[in-house]
Request: fold
Amino acid sequence: MKGRWIVYSDEEMAWLEGNRLMVISDYHAAFCGTFGRDDVTLSNLHSLRKRKGWRTGRTGCFAKGQTPHNKGVPCAPGKGGRHPNARRTQFKKGQTPHNTNYLGHERISTDGYVEISVDERNPHTGYERRYVLKHKWLWEQANGPVPDGHALKCLDSNPLNTDVSNWEPVPRGVLARLNGGRFRTTLAYDDASPELKPLVMASAKLKHAVSEKRKSA
Reply:
């Protein structure tokens, strides 16, 4: 009973420990029948076994190589997976989920870039399709791989515009200058008006070229 400590005699404790491997329902019924205890619940005995650390050998999990007792046994008609309500929501053979992302499906990444599903095996999952940056994929389809040490810069500062003409490969060293420099002492490319963007780009490239020239001197 809740709120009252259950007391067991030495004989009862010996019996409980000796039969601890029994299934809890049989364990409880056998104990109560043997000792005439009507004040002990199934939950009491379950808690007792846990407190004492008596292992039953049952984990509730299938062991490796163990076969489920109902393997290959179909549900009875109208039961489980064969219930009419379950049947209505089951996939039919050859049917695909409504949210299947097919080849060419697009999505927006957390960084705000368009990603597209292409016919390339995913090296991480082995799946037949993978998502790639759409602007880079289109650019490389038209121009080949992005040169080493370069990255594609969005010319109109709208990453959703994936048109090939809107992206230009620039040295990675130029990107920091396009962001306004280390201390943002110059106008950032993406903050500039459309009229000033070409000037900001040309200035960043010139400063980068001068810096590289000095390094090689």
